[in-house]
Specification:
Length: about 475
């Protein structure tokens, strides 16, 4: 009769496992340290298992060998996976902050890789051979697109606002309407950013109404700037009044006080041309005469994470000298991605087609319907153990942009026979390439708007795998 001692003695030695042919092969694909970690962990688990065996179970205990090798191989591949990796977004939320906001255009791949994997012109002026500035690369394209005098790019729009206020209004008052004290995703709140910048918040008006005279009455010799924040992630409806940027600029000029606008989700495109609601464009803010304007690179613009600051050269020059600029400075990959994305905007039709955010936003309902129907047909053809439906629904822009906009779309609903909807959602989320879905009306919903053409087969394979259907097997 075996006892625990003899079971422990049977556990293979780490060196023996390392010498197995399969493990030797494994180590050609996966670093030895990773494999070793996984072996140790598995052996530790077996030890634990044995030590917890009751007398009765000792008899029946089988050392998991050689199946242990398979488990080690599986675990090693799992452990070696990138933590940050691609997912499939079937939620229909185009700018999904948790899924990385804007998806970059395939068109800019070469531009970004070339700069990332080589030395680059980041800070050298090739004409003179002297030290250059990393900001020149995007300044020209931004000023050309927006009509602004000058531009600067930092890590994100939160940093942009902080830098702007710290440069232009430190130890001074900044006048803001009470209806515009925005919070964006918990950590960015206008009053708190203001405090960090060293500027003092001077709230005026009420939540629903602020008049020009509210600003004017609040102006003193301590006023450093007038700030307008675009409430991009909420709307105040009903009995409301807001001062336009133009009116604010008029007031600023009269008192020689600069006017700053934080547009948040900045766009160069008038979306009303594409059947969407109108969002203020960056060019309009420049035309209205704002001294400084800030917006995000990875919201409606569809570029990399960045905070873009544009406006009067005299203020931008001051910002370039602010030590915060160094702390907020962007990497060469961001600059390359931003420059390449912005260049696509020189032709608006190209931008709509080639920048995924814009393409997904402006996609025609007939195209979405066709894709959904094709996908539905494909799903039916493999006979999965589930009910499948095809219905109309709404997609969202997300990322705190255009909160009230509902884009008509088509969704596939999946109701599994053998497992719960929650279990299906979890299994897809934990699939090799995670598939992010949403549950609505007790069904799993796949919105085709945010699915790329080359992802349908992947979703199909995933559904087959997680519902336990082998290829070629009908249910
Ligand atoms: C999104 C947003 C921000 C923050 O921008 P990030 O690029 O996410 O840092 C600031 N202000 C407004 C109005 C916004 O909509």
């Amino acid at each position: 009769m075996p006892d625990k001692k003899s079971l422990f003695a049977q556990i293979p030695k780490i060196d023996d496992i390392l010498n197995e042919k399969q493990i030797q092969e494994l180590m050609m694909a996966i670093p030895r340290v990773v494999v070793l970690d996984v072996i140790r962990k598995n052996i530790e688990d077996i030890r634990k298992e044995i030590s917890q065996l009751s007398e009765v179970n000792i008899d029946q205990y089988q050392l998991p060998y050689p199946s242990l090798l398979e488990k080690i191989i599986h675990d090693a591949y799992e452990k070696n996976k990138m933590s940050l990796r691609k997912v499939v977004n079937t939620t229909g939320v185009i700018l999904h902050t948790n899924l990385g906001r804007a998806v970059l255009s395939e068109e800019i791949r070469e531009a970004v890789w070339s700069v990332a994997c080589n030395y680059s012109t980041l800070e050298i002026d090739v004409k003179t051979g002297k030290r250059g500035s990393r900001y020149v690369h995007i300044e020209e394209v931004i000023t050309k697109l927006t009509g602004a005098e000058s531009a600067l790019v930092v890590n994100n729009n939160a940093a942009a606002v902080l830098l702007v206020l710290s440069t232009m209004a430190k130890n001074k008052e900044v006048i803001v309407s009470r209806g515009q004290l925005v919070e964006i995703g918990g950590s960015f709140r206008v009053p708190e950013v203001m405090e960090q910048s060293g500027a003092f918040l001077r709230e005026v008006g009420s939540t629903n109404k602020t008049h020009l005279f509210d600003y004017e009455r609040a102006i003193t010799e301590d006023t450093g700037a007038l700030l307008k924040v675009h409430t991009s992630n909420y709307k105040i409806l009903g009995f409301t009044e807001e001062v336009t940027l133009k009116e604010l600029v008029g007031l600023g000029r009269k008192h020689s006080i600069p006017v700053i606008e934080d547009i948040g989700s900045g766009t160069f495109i008038d979306f009303s041309k594409y059947g969407l609601v109108k969002e203020p464009t960056v060019q309009e803010s420049v035309d209205a005469g704002a001294d400084i304007i800030t917006f995000s690179g990875d919201k409606l613009l569809g570029g990399p994470q960045a905070g873009i600051i544009i406006g009067k050269k005299k203020y931008i020059d001051l910002m370039k000298k602010n030590p915060l600029t160094r702390a907020f400075r962007v990497d060469k990959m961001t600059l390359a991605a931003l420059e390449a994305t912005l260049k696509i905007y020189f032709d608006e039709q190209e931008a709509i087609r080639k920048i995924p955010t814009l393409d997904m936003m402006t996609r025609k309902i007939e195209d979405i319907e066709r894709k959904a129907k094709d996908f539905n047909k494909l799903l039916m053809s493999i006979e999965l153990p589930c009910n499948i439906s095809l219905t109309q629904d709404y997609s969202q822009i997300g990322g705190g942009s255009m909160p009230l906009v509902e884009l008509p779309t088509w969704v596939i609903g999946i109701y599994p026979n053998d497992i719960s909807v929650n279990e299906l959602e979890k299994r897809l989320r934990e699939y090799q390439t995670p598939i992010i879905t949403r549950i609505q009306d007790e069904q799993l919903m796949l919105d085709v708007r945010t699915i790329k053409d080359n992802e349908y087969t992947l979703i199909l394979d995933a559904l087959r795998t997680v519902m336990g259907v082998k290829k070629g097997e009908s249910h």
